[in-house]
């Protein structure tokens, strides 16, 4: 039995991840629904490569669209789509897949993850729906961080500004309800400039437009050339791969829909392609196997939660991620020399820091908050006779007693040396 | 209203006495001609009549191919276009954009990235390809060849000697942190490109093989990619094939794969002959 592990469903599509969606579409077109199981999950570490989509064929794990397809084809588990391609078509197919992965996929990252408006209104709630309680707080930021890194080279970091000029809390909102005396202290908000009125997406519209053109125009041309498909006038695996990305572009109900607008304006064939693929794969209920979610055991879930918490921690998170990746790549499971050394160094640092803290606490205090000033008992001259005596003593200050001259009987003393009063 | 004083200050007291003045006027006794600049010094901006290309290279004098793919791409494209440049050995710290290559024009303008090729197109003969598929094949180089290259050079422990020879300084105090930084940057770059969580050398190599297979099919029996004339895409492919075949790898897995595709090897030789066929004659 084939088990396909994917990220869970969102936006009316069987998965929120484009590559998973592509793999589902491929299996849907090549294998009967009874021969495989769809397993939505939210813990990629179930697969040895820590990556979804992952295929589990009786204990043999494969992950990634290309790897899964070549595994399925080489083991004769499906009726392959690419069997009768010419050499040139094979070359084109590989090149188009690369094109989609490097030029089209970043657009989806920008739209769903980088754009702060879309992330908070659409993608984040979608993740909240498919993840269970503590993970909804820890996992989505990590996924978003990866997308941010992947699109760093495009130089569109300003999409990641949470500031929406037309909504939310601003100094000018509710200004009238404040008392006059407060209002005077607030800066006067004049008329906003056009630049300030725009959302980040509107401000970078020209660059987004040209990026969309680079990533999608070729696909539109190819669809026109091959009668609604990318490679030849019938379905091939590259169509499934493109469908994963294009379907998410069109179906995610994002508020700042620059991709949807571009496709609507310039690429009617992409729209038609996505619609036809959707109706071929997901329209009738029998085409997809019923999803059987698997999210691991309770200890697994707790482990994943702790894991994501550490990954989110600033500073430590990156080192932890590198170390974890290293261990998985080398297939290390137990404790080896490197892990031992790391553990020992962490322990030594911890002990040193703890010792330092204790040493600091044990040091004599540099100053105390409470200061006591007491009139000395058994003071000089008349001051031992109560208040009146004290007054008389000060009045007769010129004739101070020999003891006072010696200086060892002050009128009072500071209990502590520091006089810094706060 | 204040008036400006019309009487000039009288410098009688401060004037230099005539005998001293005569003595001072006698100096300098002799003016020597200026020393010549060191041999490797760049020509001064006013006198340079050709642009200067700053790349990673061992030796600027004979203009040999650079050992960095993106520098080699620029170098080859400029040679294909027939634009003469003066090659300067440099490093990332010298670049305004933080990465090599960059080009300094005669007027002192700094060009980097795609603008170098715009200059090559404007001044020389670099054909523009109409075929839209070129974008897809360019993506193939970025997506399948580059990660394999990064892994082979920066992450494969067997090629550490080569990496140290090419990019690391000899002082271990600087070399060790630099090497850590390079390794981290390379693995981050590979993970971003392949969109996976782990780096799998086998997957990278098989993807690289598929990419070369696709390129080999695309080239077929032609001399050049996309048409009868040599163009920018040839330089892009050459930048990897030349280095894969000519650096001193300890783990030559990439080179072995390249040798399987005879037409790519011949393309590599052909482009080298065209651009560097008469090395020795000084480039100017």
UniProtKB/TrEMBL annotation, chain A:
Major site of localization recorded for this protein: mitochondrion
Region feature (Disordered): 403-422
GO biological process: mitochondrion organization; protein transport
InterPro entries: Glutathione-S-Trfase_C_sf, Mito_Protein_Transport_Metaxin, Sam37/metaxin_N
Key words of the record: Membrane, Mitochondrion, Mitochondrion outer membrane, Protein transport, Transmembrane, Transmembrane helix, Transport
One Pfam family recorded for the sequence: Tom37
Domain Mitochondrial outer membrane transport complex Sam37/metaxin N-terminal, residue spans: 20-144
Database matches in CDD domains: GST_N_Metaxin1_like
GO cellular component terms, semicolon-separated: SAM complex
Record bears the keyword RNA-binding: no
Compartments where found: Mitochondrion outer membrane
Membrane-spanning residues: 339-360
Record protein name field: Metaxin
Species this protein is from: Emericellopsis atlantica
Species classification: Eukaryota, Fungi, Dikarya, Ascomycota, Pezizomycotina
From TrEMBL, chain B:
Superkingdom per UniProt: Eukaryota
Domain Thioredoxin-like fold as annotated: residue spans: 69-159
GO CC terms: SAM complex
GO terms (BP aspect): mitochondrion organization
Pfam families: GST_C_6 (PF17171), GST_N_4 (PF17172)
PANTHER family: METAXIN RELATED (PTHR12289), OUTER MEMBRANE PROTEIN (SAM35), PUTATIVE (AFU_ORTHOLOGUE AFUA_1G13180)-RELATED (PTHR12289:SF44)
Domain Metaxin glutathione S-transferase, residue spans: 209-271
Organism of provenance: Emericellopsis atlantica
InterPro entries with a match to the protein in the record: Glutathione-S-Trfase_C_sf, Metaxin_GST, Mito_Protein_Transport_Metaxin, Thioredoxin-like_fold
CDD domains per the UniProt record, alphabetical: GST_C_Metaxin
Protein name: Uncharacterized protein
